[in-house]
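Sample pair:
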Amino acid sequence: MPAPRNPFKAALRENRFQLGLWVALASPYAAEIVAGSGYDWLLIDGEHAPNDLPLLAAQFEAIAGRGSHPLVRLPVGDTALIKQVLDTGVQTLLIPMVDSVEQARQLVRAVRYPPQGVRGVGAALGRATNFGRITDYLENANEEICLLLQIESRAGLKAIDEIAALDGVDGLFVGPADLAADMGHLGNPGHPEVRDAIVDAFARIRSAGKARGILTLDPAQARDYRELGADFMAIGTDVTLLVSASERLRREFLGETEPARTESGY
């Protein structure tokens, strides 16, 4: 049995835009439902959703093979946690709050086997190798793992050139909500100063030849970010879709008007 390839990583290398959705309900059943909706990728959120490693692995399995590529965001870039989640079969990781090139270097090493990295050689016990049945996994894993790093602060913006230049970093994901908060615009990711910072970040990431990612729940912002060159972008979350659809059904039946909403952080 040959080692699995990473279609998401291949698409980024070929400059094919990848449209995604956040999965934060912490439910394999819900993840499976969303996986049939036609998105290129789905992000299983381990940072802000109530997920642990077995639940992340269960949602990964629910999505895999159903048309969307499963990404996993861990709560923190911990080497031991990265080792565990990769052994479950995850090929694409998003790590939040990356503020320095030193931190980025450690993350690159965490996803690679020696001598290029420090990943423990134990995947034969897990789904990554189909429990030992994939005999060339060790030879191909480094090439097929896709590492995406989140830039969400002024410190991260300052270090973005060095981070983007690292071999082993496949893409940088700008987090507008946390970036806005760090810039003094909490709850306002659409602020002109935040947009200017995103424009600059996208240009610098592109100059380094890396993929540019972002999330927004605002359709106008989504179109703007796409025009600015976003290579992979999430345009919603399962949580907000459930909230909006369930509330809209009630309001429409009762003839109520829709309340104004503000975008929160992810």
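The chain has one domain: 7-254.
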